[in-house]
């Protein structure tokens, strides 16, 4: 599928994945429409100038009228629904705001797509490995139940189920992407382990781990996620893809403490010893994904291992934080 000439709506366009996805869509000739709630000049979407090449719809996911207007007035062909409250700690503090954004926002968007199904031909909904909740059986496979318990996890379980509902009840051309922890340049959520560790090292202080560091996770580079979303969107209307969920993972699992040390090693700052607080709340102990379905049905595979991904990530933060601190 060629994206040239397609009109594509991206929600969550100011987030790390949204920013990179938008850059790729513009590079491939798509007409870009973005839903923006808050103007953030720090976002890579703004800093890269990509937003100047997009039609901007000012609005929130919770506002159904804004979503329907975006689809109808801009005659949108494809939708990438990435918009969400994406921080576990924020969800713990403010579950209502998280549910409004992540659950109401998803059914608002899917309902608008249903109303305008004569326009919208391809839809990808970004879910998460958090949708699976706690499980004694790992890695997660797509046929496992969705049983989130904590606020953020529940919001992603619901996001996922809503997408299934619209695909199977209304034959909407929607497919679901489930990724683990995504890292790459442009992520300014410093509570996340990769950008938080990088900033700490550049500021010559030890990184702080909220958990005890033993949690096992997947870490996937942002450009591999963009490849996954595009591959899924191109075929979301097909039988065997429509209404299906796909895990995307490099299938290399590391502990929080291990990835912290990997970042420090890549930066030449192994002298900084992480401070382990062990105070994290509402966190699943171990999570990692099986990506066989994506390999077999979509032909997707990641192009970056952790070392290669960090090599591409570090220069972005050195430039960004160096300019902010006058170095």
CATH architecture of the largest domain: 3-Layer(aba) Sandwich
* Total beta strands: 12
Quaternary state of the chains: single chain
CATH fold description of the largest domain: Rossmann fold
Silhouette: globular
| CA-based gyration radius | 19 Å
Distance between termini?
A: 44 Å
Unreliable segments of 5+ consecutive residues: none
Which key features would you list for this structure?
11 helices; UDP-galactose 4-epimerase, domain 1; 327 residues; 16% strand; 7-stranded parallel sheet
Description:
The protein has 327 residues and is of the alpha/beta class. It has two domains: 204 residues, Rossmann fold (3-Layer(aba) Sandwich), CATH 3.40.50; 88 residues, Alpha-Beta Complex (UDP-galactose 4-epimerase, domain 1). The chain is built from eleven helices and twelve strands. The strands form three sheets. Strands 3-2-1-4-5-6-10 form a seven-stranded parallel sheet, with helices on both faces. Strands 7-9-11 form a three-stranded mixed sheet. α1 links the parallel β1 and β2. α3 runs parallel beside α5, α5 runs parallel beside α6 and α7 packs parallel to α9. The longest helix is centred in the N-terminal third of the chain and has 21 residues. It is globular, with a radius of gyration of 19 Å. 48% of the residues are buried. The mean pLDDT is 95.
């Amino acid at each position: 599928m060629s994206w040239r000439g397609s009109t594509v709506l991206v929600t969550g366009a100011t987030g790390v994945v949204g920013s990179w996805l938008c850059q790729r869509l513009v590079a491939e000739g798509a007409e870009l429409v973005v839903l923006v709630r808050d103007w953030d000049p720090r976002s890579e979407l703004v800093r890269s100038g990509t937003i100047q090449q997009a039609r901007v719809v000012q609005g929130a996911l919770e506002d159904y009228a804004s979503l329907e207007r975006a689809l109808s007035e801009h005659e949108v062909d494809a939708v990438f629904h990435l918009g969400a409250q994406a921080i576990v700690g924020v969800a713990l503090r403010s579950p209502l705001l998280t549910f409004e954004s992540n659950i109401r926002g998803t059914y608002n968007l899917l309902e608008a797509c249903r109303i305008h199904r004569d326009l919208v031909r391809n839809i990808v909904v970004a879910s998460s490995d958090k949708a699976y909740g706690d499980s004694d059986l790992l890695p997660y496979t797509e046929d496992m139940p969705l049983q989130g318990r904590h606020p953020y996890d529940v919001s992603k379980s619901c996001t996922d189920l809503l997408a299934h509902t619209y695909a199977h009840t209304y034959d909407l051309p929607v497919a679901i992407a489930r990724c683990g922890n995504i890292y790459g340049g442009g992520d300014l959520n410093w509570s996340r382990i990769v950008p938080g560790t990088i900033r700490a090292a550049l500021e010559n202080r030890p990184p702080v781990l909220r958990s005890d560091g033993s949690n096992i996770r997947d870490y996937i580079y942002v450009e591999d996620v963009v490849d996954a979303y595009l591959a899924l969107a191109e075929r979301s209307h097909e039988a065997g893809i429509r209404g299906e969920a796909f895990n995307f993972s490099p299938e290399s699992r590391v502990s929080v403490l291990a990835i912290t040390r990997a970042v420090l090693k890549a930066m030449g700052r192994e002298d900084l010893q992480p401070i382990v607080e062990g105070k994290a709340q509402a966190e699943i102990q171990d999570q990692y994904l099986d990506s066989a379905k994506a390999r077999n049905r979509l032909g997707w595979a990641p192009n970056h291992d952790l070392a290669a991904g960090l090599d591409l990530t570090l220069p972005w933060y050195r430039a960004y934080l160096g300019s902010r601190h006058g170095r």
